[in-house]
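note to self: dont lose this again. the chain is below, predicted strucutre after it. 335 aa total, dont forget to put it in the shared folder this time
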Amino acid sequence: MELHILDHRLRVASITKSGLAHFTHPLIKLIFLRRRTRCKFFSMTETPENYTLVLDEEGFKELEASEHVQVESSVWLPLNVLSDGNASVSSQPLGVTKIAKSVIAPLACQHVSVFMLSTYQTDFILVREQDLSVVVGTLEEEFNIYREVGGESLLVRSHNVANGLHKNGKEAAVQPTLHPVLIPQNRFCVMSLDPDTLPSVATTLIDVLFYSGCAKEDQASSLSPDLEHIKFFSFSLIDGYVSLVMDTDTQREFPADLLFTSSSGELWRMVRIGGQPLGFDECGIVAQISQPLADHDISAYYISTFSFDHALVPEEDITSVSDMLHKQRTDPTSG
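---
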């Protein structure tokens, strides 16, 4: 298999619910006026707490400094695993569980923090730029690693990756914290649309993104263990491909003839990871979920946000996933 380090330098930021109105103009420009911006990688995800933005340096320039914006200090690089050297970003994603043992677990063992972004088209593994030499040194035995520079894919070896950390040898990983999980009742779908049809859904998309309500009640209840439904909507426009993750209630607001999904039309349930906001420095958070799912051959999308992580699993597997994760917390040595 091949691992590609994509030609994007990314920033991760959050906007408060109350501060979103201050960023309406730049966000609408990034979403709908892509020919008027040089931004090629843009993702915006709403959770009960805030809005998470993942965007390249050109997109980041559109945001003004504000008390309503919190920016993670690192520059992140997106990695993409290809099972076929001829595959492209438009191919169906492998899913986080398919790369759990070959990518996620080895990086966790080397104390590399990852930030996951699954889309309709592919799965992006974000790593800090400063950790690149560790990443390459850890994964080069499993993958042919290429770095995309100016449209060309150049083969990368650990000895020619500069300005990074050194591989940590065979140092054992610290046992990761087992974070609590929450399983809301919403049913979700992962969809896409032709970017040329974005103007046709502009009114609906603006409604969902900017006027869905930032009720303080939602924020207050978002960490309650008996939460039944969660506000979650994710929009990505990356290298010209659109991806949307929404619950079925929100889906009904969009024209059915413009959105498309996989032929199976599969519905998904969410596993939300974290009882308190997660830190960016902690390693093994993604592995906590992806490894047991991989062991049971259960596919999943995975979306990290500024405060919490979210895994989407097939609806028919949610009961077994719930049982599995409960057993993991009560008996960490199981599995």
